[in-house]
Amino acid sequence: MKTTYWAMLLMLLPSMAYTQTTEKENEFSMSIQIRPRAEYRNGALVPRNEGEEPAGFINNRARLSMEYKRSDLQMKISAQHVGVWGQDPQIDKNGRFIMNEAWAKLNFGEGFFAQLGRQSLVYDDERILGGLDWNIAGRYHDALKLGYANKNNQLHLILAFNQNDETKIGGTYYQAGAQPYKNMQTLWYHYTPDQAPFGASLLFMNLGLETGDAATKTSHTRYLQTMGTYLTYKNSDWNVDGAFYYQTGKNQKAVKVSAFMASLQAAYTIDKTWTVVASADYLSGSNGSDDKYKAFNPLYGTHHKFYGAMDYFYASDFVDGYAPGLFDKRLGVRFCASDKVDMDLNYHHFSTAAKLSGLKKALGSEMDYQINWSVMKDVKLSAGYSIMRGTETMDIVKGGNHKSWQDWGWVSVNINPRVLFVKW
User: Is residue 21 predicted with pLDDT exceeding 50?
Assistant: First the structure.
């Protein structure tokens, strides 16, 4: 009798396994991205001098992403090859193929989770932590993220500790150049109410910056703290957001820091076709004579999104040790010609935040135009053109010659289909 019972149980096992899998809690998807962008640079990133010839190139991102999901586990691997057309030889044995994402997320139930590995850190409007998707390579962090989420609240704790290699002895000196920080601890909280069209976030970030001696590998870590809030209001007509952040501690030069930034943006939707927007961003600067370093560092945000498309500020450095900060005033308009075509026109006026001896604050004006066309499903064509008219102060703090014509144009195709999706 016992033998018959066990035989029947063994016969039932396959059907029991099949019954469990028919719930289809497992998902697997795969997507491919090819994104070439042709650029004409005649003063992008840094102003050009009189007589300097413009540059031109085509860069490309080729990315393969795979993602697995079930109720208690999520994993993603995304590998990419980035570079400029013609950069690699036709016969290349040492291709540049890297992981830009490789993480696992463990869901423990009741809203608790842990996500560990290489991942993008994208928070709020991306002023402090952003994915930097405009850049051909994007931005990633190697980190552990612990979190909790429910209907109204999200809380994340992010921890990172970076080293150059698997060291045996010799301390923990970190040669910057890979990740810009040695360690990081970040706490982020977001609240969304049930009814009111408001949202609020709080951020605290503690960065450990290596200031030791590279020759002797003597480790001396300084700590920089950034803290602040991001607030939003949105209804059918208005979309308003504002942010304030303060920095203290010490920077990588072991200098005491006391700096801040504030931003305010308001967009009004006139109708389905037209939207107007106005914004102001103020990032404090240093005049070089302060006892504390007063230039705010927006760290790992998506700077291209805010401070002009030509990337003169924070996406590229000031010259000769200047750190005058930035006061950016913007007026813009968006026009949706159809469901598939939209365009933006933005005007920026830039000035320094700090008063530099013998110089006026005005840096110049920039005009940015961009058009986007959804050619077909998963295929978007975008193009843009920008001009910058600088001042003598721009020449001093950024280089170049403000009397030279500064412009920049680009065309990009983004092909990004999901080629596989299965559930079982």
Answer: no
322: nearest Cα among 281, 353, 364, 367: 353
Parallel, antiparallel, or unpaired for β 406-415 and 274-283? unpaired
Q: What is the pLDDT of residues 129-145, one digit of tens each?
A: 999 999 999 999 999 99
The full 3-state SS of 303-321, as one line of letters, equals: HHHCCCCCCCCCCCCCCCC
Q: How far apart (Å, rounded) are the C-alpha atoms in residues 229 and 392?
A: 35
C-alpha separations of 54 from 35, 270, 317, 409 in Å: 23, 39, 20, 11
Q: Look at the pTM and tell me if it is higher than 0.85.
A: yes
Six-digit token pair at 218? 């003597």
**Residue 223, SS3 per DSSP:** strand
Confirm whether 399 is domain-assigned.
Answer: yes
Segment (H or E) for 20: helix 2-21
pLDDT band at 1; cut points 50, 70, 90: very low
Angle at 26 between CA 21 and CA 32, to 5 degrees: 145
> 119 near 160, Cβ under 8 Å?
no
Residue 35 falls within a domain, yes or no? no
69 within domain boundaries = no
For residue range 148-206, what is the model confidence (pLDDT) as tens digits? Answer: 999 999 999 999 999 988 888 878 889 877 899 999 999 999 999 988 899 999 999 99
Distance CA 319, CA 360 (A): 17
For residue 254, which amino acid is it?
A
Read off the CATH number of the domain in which 203 is found.
2.40.160.100
Closest CA to 207 of 322, 138, 121: 121
Q: What is the pLDDT of residues 45-66, one digit of tens each?
A: 999 999 999 999 999 999 999 9
